[in-house]
Amino acid sequence: MSNNSIHSFGIGIASKNAAGDIIEVLYPKPANEVSAELSAALLGACGLGAGECGFVELDSNQYEQLVSQLPEALATALAGLQVQTTQQALVLCVLGADLAPTSIPEAFLKLQLLSHRLVKPHGVKLDGMFAVLKNLAWTNEGPIDLADLPARRIAARAAGRTLDVASVDKFPKMTDYVVPEGVRIADAARVRLGAYLGAGTTIMHEGFVNFNAGTLGAAMIEGRISAGVVVGENSDLGGGCSTMGTLSGGGKEIISVGRDCLIGANAGIGFPLADGCTVEAGLYVTAGTKVRLLDASGAEIKQVKARELSTLQHHLFRRNSITGAVECVPLKTSVTLNEALHSHN
Amino acid sequence: MSNNSIHSFGIGIASKNAAGDIIEVLYPKPANEVSAELSAALLGACGLGAGECGFVELDSNQYEQLVSQLPEALATALAGLQVQTTQQALVLCVLGADLAPTSIPEAFLKLQLLSHRLVKPHGVKLDGMFAVLKNLAWTNEGPIDLADLPARRIAARAAGRTLDVASVDKFPKMTDYVVPEGVRIADAARVRLGAYLGAGTTIMHEGFVNFNAGTLGAAMIEGRISAGVVVGENSDLGGGCSTMGTLSGGGKEIISVGRDCLIGANAGIGFPLADGCTVEAGLYVTAGTKVRLLDASGAEIKQVKARELSTLQHHLFRRNSITGAVECVPLKTSVTLNEALHSHN
Amino acid sequence: MSNNSIHSFGIGIASKNAAGDIIEVLYPKPANEVSAELSAALLGACGLGAGECGFVELDSNQYEQLVSQLPEALATALAGLQVQTTQQALVLCVLGADLAPTSIPEAFLKLQLLSHRLVKPHGVKLDGMFAVLKNLAWTNEGPIDLADLPARRIAARAAGRTLDVASVDKFPKMTDYVVPEGVRIADAARVRLGAYLGAGTTIMHEGFVNFNAGTLGAAMIEGRISAGVVVGENSDLGGGCSTMGTLSGGGKEIISVGRDCLIGANAGIGFPLADGCTVEAGLYVTAGTKVRLLDASGAEIKQVKARELSTLQHHLFRRNSITGAVECVPLKTSVTLNEALHSHN
User: Cβ–Cβ of C335/A190 closer than 8 Å?
Assistant: First the structure.
């Protein structure tokens, strides 16, 4: 796109709380490849200058008029949006540039750009997002402001309904916004909006993917992908395995998992794992774990902290079950995903 | 049943996608003990020869007529089935023999035979099932074909509803089809249709049971039972523990857990565990883990790989916390389930 | 409150099964600071003597009359309760004293006192509660008695609806009853009614909190808090970590976690952890684990079982990755929670 193009935009349906504030936005088809002409029109519709970010509520005429200006595929995907109640609104959000989000519509747009695979993890600025997003009750009657929840709960019960509060969080689950092509997600409560899942990815029940994190291609994920962690294609994260995040707890290292890796069940890493590496089931290797690096004959080359091995490909990390020492040894074969589990996603 | 009996059959309600294809079937009461006479009638209703498998859609007259031929208990359980929309259908599915499933109604019938405890894990052929089943969105508005999802999502929002996509998978959760007697399942999203849960089984929030797997009697399950794994009665799988499956990742050994076993929290096994054995919390023993086998006095008998210990009963697997070695020692007492947690299921 | 005050009471809406028995009660605003005058009125309304516990169904006149006697804040919070169907009832439950619960309304009141932070874990008698509570299907159509479930399932399908059975358990999830101020709970299915969550607590997707257990202040919980376990403020339980409970499996020690503690991902404890202590990721320390206690210079002081270290503050438990021994060493710095993750709850 030209220098006169905006970063991205979305047209969607927002939810409001009882006070009339927008608390959440669904963009059925966000876009980030925008012509200069359309960019100018969208900025204008929002009353924004070049490089600015913002949003505006649309009435149904403005919505129709905007959609008529869109490329056909986009116009088709956005057809039929309408609102029924004063707790909903049609919204246009325009990101003139990739600035830190300062409003809920902007933050939700960026999270949806990630989950629609329009940008990769770390591909947009999310600084300050926690303070922008509201902590909401995600219910079978839609997102509800926590201030409104007690009255809504009584009203539902008194009407003979059950108000089911599935989550109380700043982030909703991804699948309520988009299911990217070629994925399976056994328990969708465990994949946050803002996750990036490559085609061919299967997230089993014990898998988890935070926002700004994910998989770059086919992968079998039965472990936890923390915020910021990216997993290369053809890798397998075993049941309950852990990738150490940087938001809380442990380390400051930014963790990644290469391609063709296997992290065994209940294992974990606190350092970046290079292509073709395996961590044995049940072994947690932190960045500071002292490791005996062995050659193919089993002789010790040296003892190093695991973080120094983060570029070493095709090795196995294991704990010697007789000596108790953590060892790193060259690997002859590498992981192959079970084709049957992925080819029909 | 005689040689002239079919393997099993089910009458149920199917869901269809927008294209009119069946994508899922609920059989409220599948049956696998069928008289020769009824078998002949059911095969005829489906237009099948002996030993063949298939299904047919029923109109309400055909359904009434079929139900009138059933034994009373079955007829009662199947009373009241009807469809409201063109996206539903009444279905009869007949398995003349235990063949690999070739249609969605057949695959769903076999999974429901398992969860109704009519067949045990490994008791029916499931070969090729992944290719037969469709990857669906399981929502609060029922199962939805992924091709239909974006339009359904917009339609729901535009009508002021929320479309909640709880799972994107080929397998639904078991409890939406059947809750076998005498079980508790704290988080039902973690038990797939096709699980077999013995009476007295409690699946806590961290527990998980895949299809073609389960428990043979009373059990406390806070860990993961992978596809194909069977757990004997009176066993306890601690929080987050792992049983290694054969579908992805590690081993080729078929794993089982005997009776009166305890696998501690965050532990795991990659080999079959014999009756009365305990694996200490946090210890993962793979099939290839070299283990120091000790006698009751603590003297080493020999060092062996764990897979060679798969028939050794009443032993404890632990990691010596001073030497770091994995040891296997005779066990004096064995696990007893907490009666209060099970007797009132 | 004076000696003439009751322990607590609740006014709420109960669900009934097809047989007309109460199976569950929502109390929007339970109370345990009750004047002597109101106490007398409430005992009278239930036909109870001093120190007795019980409940009574209310018609709408009785309900209005009762609410008019309440302090204003309470009356406001309880305004608007009403029932639509014969499967609901307005209920007053009064606990004249803290006796073991003998009815479902009493047990539900005690669980809600905990989750409303009116009593701390271990602050009320719950003896015998498992036998009092019914195992129910928790569905999108409310709690359903398991005896009623098959007919309800068919009726829903035949009407074109889906009956979603999210849980089969004696305990519902907490958020369907109350969301205490200042908490986030990413996957609400994993926090049982009866959990006590301090303000500033975040429960991530992998976190879990059982009843009669919880956190006393700000905390980041990505691990499992078993029944009876209490976590001090400013502590961090890493992804998938385990605290050993006493209901099943292992030990008899009552576990707690002090303040300013960090239990690493996939780690676990089977003994009480003192203030300011850290357990390294992946390490499970049971009560009986023999530990090498080291001084700041790394010299061994002695070898002791972990349970003897349960009052030792500001220490790190780790497994030496070269020798395999579990060590306990003085800790220089302690955990600090990420402010951004908590300050906006």
Answer: no
